[in-house]
Amino acid sequence: MDTIAILQDCLEYVDSHLQDALTVEFLAARAGFSKWHFCRVFRWGTGLSVMGYVRWRRLAFAAYALNTGQKILDISLAYGFGTHSGFSKAFRRHYGCSPEIYRFHARAERPSLPDLSRMKKYQIGGILMEPKFNPLPALKLAGFVLRTNSNEGQNLADIPAFWSAYLADGRMERLHQEAFLKGHAEYGVCFMDASEAGALDYVIGVEIKPGTTVPDDYHVCEVPAADYAVFSTPPSDAADFSKAIQGTWQYIFNEWFPASGYEYAPGCADFELYDERCMGETGKVCDIYIPIVEKRN
Predict the structure, then answer these.
(1) What pLDDT digit, counting tens, does each position of 44-62 carry?
(2) DSSP state of 252
(3) Residue of 131, 145, 266, 280 with fewest CB within 10 Å of its CB?
(4) What secondary structure, in 3-state letters, does 185-239 show?
(5) The predicted structure's pLDDT at residue 128
(6) Does residue 124 belong to any structural domain of this protein?
């Protein structure tokens, strides 16, 4: 078997034995690799550490088990967390809320097995997790705007060049020193123009602090309120970050949307969110927000 097939077999084994005492050493031996080589190959194929992946899958199946009415302590013990408090801390870190709140407000589908061959097709370089769903109110942004279009992929060249210029010519430093700045997270937003085929405005901006004045030389815009499917790009080095972002976009529209039961919400805007996770040279991650509505029959 080639490396991807070996790793896929490993993922299938992990999903079938999540309630067992899994270790890196055991999984490496089962794959026929040394521990050192297995760890490197696993991160190359999935974007995650071995035990980081195991913890993620245990949390995903635990979230699904919350639908069944089992006691939370029983779920935590079944998936290897030892105590209710240990499980709650891990669950809150991943899902942003306690298991009790999640059980009250949400229901998880049974986790599907990641398909590494499909991920490689989009040159993502790791496992793409299923999206989180997040409603947001309207966002008011200030920054800089680029007029481009999607004809013959022009936007795929224009937007990276726009970012490069923004980072190099002093505009980024000036924007982040302004009094109207609410936070340092940056938004890359696409506003489609229905009046012209393929035309769009791409905005690099930051949120505006309520009650502050924005100088006239900044572009001000509002992202409409919407329900969003939020995808996180796999952790990437700086050299591969752009490729990971583009691969994630391709996955969303070619793979996720057709099977999701959702469609793109009309009159809304999608955006990329760049926060502190983007600052380093390694492990760079950004979130992609896609406005959605349930698919009409």
Answers:
(1) 888 788 999 999 899 989 9
(2) I
(3) 266
(4) CEEEEEEECCCCCCEEEEEEEEEECCCCCCCCCCEEEEECCEEEEEEECCCECHH
(5) 55
(6) no
